[in-house]
Amino acid sequence: MNAPRQDLRARHTRLQDYQAMLARRLREARSLPAADSYLALQIGARHWLLPLAETGEVLDMRQPSRVPLTQPWYSGLVNARGSLLGVIDFSLFCGGAPTPVQPGSKLVVLSRQVERACAIVATRVAGLRHAPDLGLPHGEAAQGHDEVAAWEGQRFADRDGRDWQVLDVRALLEAPAFLQVGRSAA
């Protein structure tokens, strides 16, 4: 009977160790040139890079409290250290499917400015990436994007050939569509 409890404690300890390591690496990476350091996230099927200079903290996933008469992509509010934080399903906002939430999913705070901060749901935090370790995606010149959102920055590919899209947090937080959280009662 003690074995399941010990397994649970061991998993909890490993999770705490991982979170401590990620927090340490975030602090270390912030000492590097900000333009070259990114927090890598998987949001649904897409992979995003958030510039560390524009990224707040990474929080454990929790169910947001719904807010009536808001856009479908506005998941609701969570209490983060005594402050209310709006939670965005960024995949839905971009016109995709809802972001899958699984064990290990996180809320990633955008902006270090408290008055502008909100969080996006990340299916998975994939650690840190640095620009020198990334290259242009294969076929970049051949791919033409019909419509590129203002918050979509440069695209990269990692050594495994996985495409990464830089998220321009400032442009997102200033986008009129993003600022229009409410919807009419009609």
TrEMBL record:
<dbReference type="GO" id="GO:0005829">
    <property type="term" value="C:cytosol"/>
</dbReference>
<dbReference type="InterPro" id="IPR036061">
    <property type="entry name" value="CheW-like_dom_sf"/>
</dbReference>
<dbReference type="GO" id="GO:0007165">
    <property type="term" value="P:signal transduction"/>
</dbReference>
<protein>
    <submittedName>
        <fullName>Chemotaxis protein CheW</fullName>
    </submittedName>
</protein>
<dbReference type="GO" id="GO:0006935">
    <property type="term" value="P:chemotaxis"/>
</dbReference>
<dbReference type="InterPro" id="IPR002545">
    <property type="entry name" value="CheW-lke_dom"/>
</dbReference>
<dbReference type="InterPro" id="IPR039315">
    <property type="entry name" value="CheW"/>
</dbReference>
<feature type="domain" description="CheW-like">
    <location>
        <begin position="35"/>
        <end position="178"/>
    </location>
</feature>
<dbReference type="Pfam" id="PF01584">
    <property type="entry name" value="CheW"/>
</dbReference>
